[in-house]
Amino acid sequence: MQDQKLLEPIITVASVALRLLMALMVAAFILSTVHGWGSGSVCTTDWTSNSSYAARDFVPEPGARVGSVPRYCAESATTAQNILANLGPLASLALSVGGLFLLNLLLRGASRDGVHTLQTATRLRLLGWWLLAGSVAAATVAAVSRTALLASLARGVDLTAVSWFQAWNAPYLAIFTGLGLLTFARITRAGSRMREDLEGLV
After folding, report:
1. What angle do CA 132, 139, 142 make, to 5 degrees?
2. For residues 48 and 25, what is the distance between their CA atoms, to the nearest angstrom?
3. Distances 161 to 150, 156, 164 between C-alpha atoms, Å
4. Torsion from C-alpha of 105, 106, 110, 111, nearest 10 degrees
5. Is the dihedral of CA 93, 95, 99, 102 positive or negative?
6. pLDDT tens per residue, range 112-156
7. Which of 20, 37, 196, 200 is deepest in the core (most CB within 10 A)?
């Protein structure tokens, strides 16, 4: 009971956030099913362009210059283009929902079994690996899908390792948070073993 009090209010917040995200995912799935994936317009910018084009409708201050980046849009996007446009946000949403689920599992298990236990250390380690590997995977999926979408809309742009690496944004915060959780999992595991040894001596 004492451990449960220590873990509030994060247990309640994680539980409510998980339920809200699940409801949003169900609503988004229903809307996408009703409206279909093969219609509408999708757009993307060409970040691979080496030089920006001058924007004639804007007048900069002396000593400043203005440029524009090409933006490609499909007036009637195909199903494949709609999927590519939504893969990045879906991967990010899946990472968030999975992280909240594991966080909720960790907190409820810790309140039930205790904070300084091997079970809590295992769940903490699982959450750390989810954030570390999942964030890198989600960023990679977003970069590849964004590059593939641009390649389907712009001539002269191909889906290559160089082009998708240019679109890849490293999730530094999630990576360092995952590494921190893995470290705390090792500390918790060591502490739980010391506790078990002390209880065995008593």
Report:
1. 155
2. 32
3. 14, 15, 6
4. -50
5. positive
6. 887 788 888 999 999 999 999 999 999 999 999 989 998 888 887
7. 37
Least confident window among 50-54, 73-77, 104-108: 50-54
pLDDT digit string (tens) for 5-53?
666 677 777 778 878 877 887 777 667 655 555 556 788 887 776 545 5
Average predicted confidence (pLDDT) for the chain: 80
Q: Which residue has the tokens 């090792």?
A: 186
d(CA 124, CA 117): 11
Domains identified in the chain, total number: 1
Range of the domain at 88: 2-201
Distance CA 73, CA 94 (A): 26
Q: Using DSSP, state whether 71 is helix, strand or coil.
A: strand
The DSSP code sequence of 131-187 is: HHHHHHHHHHHHHHHHHHHHHHHSTT----HHHHHHH----HHHHHHHHHHHHHHHH
Q: Tell which residue, 33, 131, 122, 124, has the closest CA to residue 82.
A: 33
Name the phi and psi angles at 156, rounded to 5: 85, 0
Question: What number of other Cβ atoms are within 10 A of residue 123's Cβ?
Answer: 22
Question: Three-state DSSP class for 70?
Answer: coil
Query: What's the pTM?
Result: 0.77
